[in-house]
Amino acid sequence: MSPTIRSLVIPVSDLNAAKAVYTALLGAPHTDESYYVGYNVDGFEVALNPGDETAGPVAFADVEDLDATRETLLAAGATERTAPRHVAPETRICVLADADGNPFGLRGR
Hints:
Layout: E1 4-12, H1 15-26, E2 31-33, E3 36-41, E4 44-50, E5 58-62, H2 66-75, E6 79-88, E7 91-97, E8 103-108
Parallel strand pairs: 1-4, 5-8
Antiparallel strand pairs: 1-5, 2-3, 3-4, 6-7, 7-8
């Protein structure tokens, strides 16, 4: 399976203000919690993440083996922004950066 980008996580400092804008653009969220607001846009996840410390929105690629993919990317010159962590029972994420510092995420097992 090749990686597929299926989500974009947007860091926000004011969740309610951001939610008002994105709800006007995308409609009602499917998940509306104090720690995460998620919108489904034709099968693509757009999420608001309060307090996220990344420099901007992060596109997440779904991968089969997060650890193997992460190691391959680090060996190719990527740098780690956040270490792998569980966000759901069988889902982990991490954020890496390319040589110019642009963040991208991995989501997998």
